[in-house]
Write a structure and sequence with these properties.
137 residues; globular; alpha+beta
Length: 137
Amino acid sequence: MVLNSFLNHIFRYGWASPTTLLGLLFASLLLLTGASARWVDGVIEVAGGWLAQTLVQTSGFAALTLGHVVLGCSAECLQRLRPHEHVHVRQAERWGLLFVPAYLLAGLWQWLRGRHAYYDNLFEQEAFAAESVESVR
């Protein structure tokens, strides 16, 4: 049973690794601009730095998940958004290399239907649902 759990764990990390590598690339850029990093529940969280602040001001997004890497504007922000962002980590584990294209296509599909590319995206709806369940606890 322990071996099965270990192999499942390795598979999930391996399957998500292409997206995680992209996250590590972005994390490196944030770290070079003053961000800090920490390990939380199997995920690398990178917070702060002037580049993150600039991206938040231009894009409006406070956090971004790429595989097992979560990038955020601050540690407080990441703590608040952790339930939401960790849903995206699990999505990356399920979708693997296909996660980023599937996420973008889901948003494009909603936009083409005249809906909101972010809020109506099925990946985001799953994350928002988990976030609201966590806030009830």
